[in-house]
Amino acid sequence: xxxxxxxxxxxxxxxxxxxxxxxxxxxxxxxxxxxxxxxxxxxxxxxxxxxxxxxxxxxxxxxxxxxxxxxxxxxxxxxxxxxxxxxxxxxxxxxxxxxxxxxxxxxxxxxxxxxxxxxxxxxxxxxxxxxxxxxxxxxxxxxxxxxxxxxxxxxxxxxxxxxxxxxxxxxxxxxxxxxxxxxxxxxxxxxxxxxxxxxxxxxxxxxxxxxxxxxxxxxxxxxxxxxxxxxxxxxxxxxxxxxxxxxxxxxxxxxxxxxxxxxxxxxxxxxxxxx
Length: 275
Description:
It is a single chain. By secondary structure, this protein is mostly helical. The protein has 2 domains: 2-40; 65-274, Orthogonal Bundle (MetI-like fold). Helices cover 79% and strands 0% of the residues. It has helices spanning 2-35, 56-63, 65-98, 104-116, 119-130, 139-162, 167-175, 180-209, 212-217, 225-235, 240-274.
């Protein structure tokens, strides 16, 4: 009887948890589901019910010079920023994982601080740091700023991958005469590659979606997609913005699918290694 009651209690608990999780998911996803259909609405106003189906707003986006420039700037800043963040974040994660020194917790907290510090504070700090160096309103300054924002994500993902790394493999390679660079390139990097790639994708997504530092540091000709959307919503709201939003959501979904594929692949490699 007690086992049956316990089983019934577990079933009810799981059911309530599933219902609660579903409601939370609907609450989070509902704004996206509400705005995406409006990108196909044959109306100049963002209203329901929809007046018809059209791809006109997507055509406007692809034909617009300002949107083409925004897309170009987003990739021109995002790709180098992700590359720098990946290199620095990977090295930092390896150093923190393999080394044991006094103040390690403080260094880790400083490296991860952009994840918890409000972005406006980070942006203002970057502005006052870059201004005397002449790095404001330059692509170099924007790339470095976005690299600093994306590096903590790389540190987290690579550190997670290194948690299952067997240090004996590196010791064995070193004992056979392999220099540190070769140990990293031939032994460590292949095993933590999924974490590195996931971190790079997150760093790129952070740069691609960031608007606050762009508002403070960028020149008028360095407008990115989020900056263009911000100005569009403030000055002249039209369905073209919903078309851009739909494309950004699609890009985010693709990035998440790649990250999930890398996670599953990494789990399979770990199981194969154990077997």
